[in-house]
């Protein structure tokens, strides 16, 4: 039987990166189409807790590889360990969420497996040996149907296009394996976390983003985000200027979000920004410029100053409570 | 230091991309072409490193005769010489990485700097494939701690830092929830993120000088690389259009719509 292997990700804080659950759903869809069995791999210094969480997500087996050398993620140590596992399992497909780690690791792993790869898949087609991957190109202005012709096929999953796999779907067999460790020419120096009390941008139900129109003043955006339990995002211009941390950037070159509600305040709506948010269910645009391209994708638009609209919006929303 | 940088030819990021009715490709008429923005950042970083540590920046591009435009652009920015891999027809990320491997083995640079992704395919693969093919370390999504409006940026300081013994580079990477720093032994592969630097404009004297800088021509056959694509793009389509929205006159109407129509608050 063909094998689909999904690589799950442990965050630096030891928890499971939630996008892994969306990748597992994609893996399940793929396994159904290919008539394959779903397996999950997790690597780390001590991934036992995460493996427990993965057990009930509907896979046949969870492969746990623990080693001290895997404490800090490096493509050069993770790729050989996963390649050895994939080869031993005779995996036909290897996939992972399109997180920063997924994007760094999977091409290196694919190179080891002499595999072709599809990045950021948004859907699946075909059946049996003829699987088709759907993926965005040109900043989401084009969607392509792609076929990989190498024996092993590698992919990363755009998490916002698949639901998160729920727990309680039976109990996968947890198998530990001794990861193949290779010396790395790269060493981990440090990780500086940007801490936030707000929900993670890619997982939030509501996202409020600010652009150049904020002139760097995010106070009103943050206040509204706190009222709504929303995540805060930003346009590229705002990150480039150093007004907010880089990891808040929504767009082709930043994060892709698809919340129930996306509020764009003072964002013109450049192609590269739209690539990161136009799958949102409802889009609200607040902009002084009635001609701003953001109004072409917004369900509801207000042509006005965001510093006037946002406080009003807060007090109107307060009234509803 | 010898630094190899890439300069892929891509559609101008500001252009409106339209799919042909039969889904076989994109409409080429009226499109402008540029050097991939992430590659341009790579050229800039290479130039800054060489300005600080001496050496040479070699720029490589793969494609038909038209990619010489992008090579000349990088030469006008200040790159010293160019390598053109003359190839027409389909090419996938495996093929590109295979060709770059051969060019790298020939040139023996200390560092290869590529864009993290090209804005046409959006694959984000080639740098990582190349690092594995060469058996080198990789630092993807290289960024900087300071903003692009900082004094460091205006002084054109390289963000990729050479260690004291000059045998490794320290690279700050943009990752989920923060910034990670890696130290890569040289030679290594680095891919650029947007906030690594602000690329310079090509000056008029630079453009004049670029005309006399050498472009070496190579071919996939000459490099011994089979570039038959393993990634087949079967069909292209436009994304589903969003239904037209409305402009509302005031915040009260907006809240009413969000509550009763969209049901999101």
TrEMBL record, chain B:
The keyword Signal appears for this protein: no
UniProt cross-references to InterPro entries, sorted A to Z: ETF_a/b_N (IPR014730), ETF_b (IPR012255), ETF_beta_N (IPR033948), Rossmann-like_a/b/a_fold (IPR014729)
GO biological process, one term: carboxylic acid catabolic process
Top-rank taxon: Bacteria
SUPFAM superfamilies: Adenine nucleotide alpha hydrolases-like (SSF52402)
Keywords: Electron transport, Transport
Domain Electron transfer flavoprotein alpha/beta-subunit N-terminal span(s) in chain numbering: 23-227
SMART domains hit by this protein: ETF (SM00893)
Required cofactor(s): AMP
Statement: the UniProt record of this protein carries the keyword Electron transport: yes
Any matching Pfam family: ETF
Listed GO MF terms: electron transfer activity
Function of the molecule: The electron transfer flavoprotein serves as a specific electron acceptor for other dehydrogenases. It transfers the electrons to the main respiratory chain via ETF-ubiquinone oxidoreductase (ETF dehydrogenase).
Subunit structure: Heterodimer of an alpha and a beta subunit.
Family indicated by similarity: Belongs to the ETF beta-subunit/FixA family.
Protein name per its UniProtKB record: Electron transfer flavoprotein subunit beta
Organism of origin: Myxococcus fulvus
Recorded name of the encoding gene: etfB
């Amino acid at each position: 039987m063909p094998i689909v292997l999904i690589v799950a990700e442990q965050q630096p804080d030891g928890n499971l990166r939630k996008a892994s659950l969306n990748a597992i759903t994609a893996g399940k869809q793929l396994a159904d189409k290919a008539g394959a069995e779903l397996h999950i791999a997790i690597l780390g210094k001590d991934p036992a807790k995460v493996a427990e969480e993965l057990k009930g997500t509907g896979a046949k087996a969870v492969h746990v590889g623990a080693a001290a050398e895997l404490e800090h993620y490096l493509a050069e140590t993770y790729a050989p360990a996963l390649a050895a596992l994939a080869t031993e399992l005779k995996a036909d497909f290897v996939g992972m969420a399109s997180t920063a780690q997924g994007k760094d690791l999977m091409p290196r792993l694919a190179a080891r497996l002499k595999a072709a790869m599809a990045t950021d898949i948004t859907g699946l087609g075909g059946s049996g040996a003829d699987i088709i991957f759907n993926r965005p190109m040109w900043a989401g202005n084009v969607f392509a149907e792609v076929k990989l012709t190498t024996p092993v096929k590698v992919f990363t999953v755009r998490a916002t296009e698949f639901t998160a796999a729920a727990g309680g779907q039976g109990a996968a067999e947890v198998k530990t394996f001794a990861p193949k460790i290779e010396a790395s020419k790269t060493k981990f120096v440090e990780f500086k976390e940007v801490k936030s009390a707000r929900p993670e941008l890619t997982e939030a139900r509501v996202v409020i983003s600010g652009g150049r129109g904020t002139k760097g003043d995010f106070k009103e955006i943050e206040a509204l985000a706190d009222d709504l339990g929303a995540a805060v995002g930003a346009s590229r211009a705002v990150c480039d200027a150093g007004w907010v941390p880089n990891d808040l950037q929504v767009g082709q070159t930043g994060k892709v979000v698809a919340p129930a509600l996306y509020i764009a305040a003072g964002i013109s709506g450049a192609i590269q920004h739209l690539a990161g948010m136009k799958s949102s269910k409802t889009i609200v645009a607040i902009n002084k410029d009635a001609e701003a391209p953001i109004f072409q994708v917004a369900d509801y638009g207000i042509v006005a100053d965001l510093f006037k609209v946002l406080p009003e919006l807060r007090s109107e929303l307060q009234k509803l409570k | 230091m010898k630094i190899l940088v890439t300069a892929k030819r891509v559609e101008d990021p500001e252009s409106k991309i339209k799919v042909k009715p039969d889904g076989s490709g994109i409409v080429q008429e009226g499109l402008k072409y540029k050097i991939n923005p992430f590659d341009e950042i790579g050229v800039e970083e290479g130039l800054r490193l060489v300005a600080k540590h001496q050496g040479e920046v070699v720029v490589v591009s793969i494609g038909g005769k038209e990619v010489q435009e992008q090579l000349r652009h990088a030469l006008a920015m200040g790159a010293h010489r160019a390598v053109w891999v003359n190839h027409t027809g389909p090419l996938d990320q495996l093929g590109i990485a295979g060709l770059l491997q051969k060019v790298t083995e020939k040139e023996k640079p200390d560092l290869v700097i590529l864009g993290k992704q090209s804005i046409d395919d959006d694959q984000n693969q080639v740098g990582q494939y190349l690092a594995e093919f060469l058996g080198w370390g990789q630092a993807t999504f290289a960024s900087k701690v300071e903003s692009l409006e900082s004094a460091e940026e205006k002084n054109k300081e390289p963000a990729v830092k050479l260690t004291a013994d000059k045998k490794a580079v320290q690279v700050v990477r943009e990752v989920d929830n923060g910034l990670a720093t890696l130290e890569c032994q040289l030679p290594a592969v680095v891919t650029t993120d947007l906030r690594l630097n602000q690329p310079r404009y090509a000056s008029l004297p630079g453009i004049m000088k670029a005309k006399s800088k050498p472009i070496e021509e190579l071919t996939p056959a000459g490099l011994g690389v089979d570039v038959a694509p393993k990634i087949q793009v079967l069909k292209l389509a436009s994304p589903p259009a969003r239904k037209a929205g409305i402009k509302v006159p005031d915040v009260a109407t907006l809240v009413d719509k969000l509550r009763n129509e969209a049901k999101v608050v």
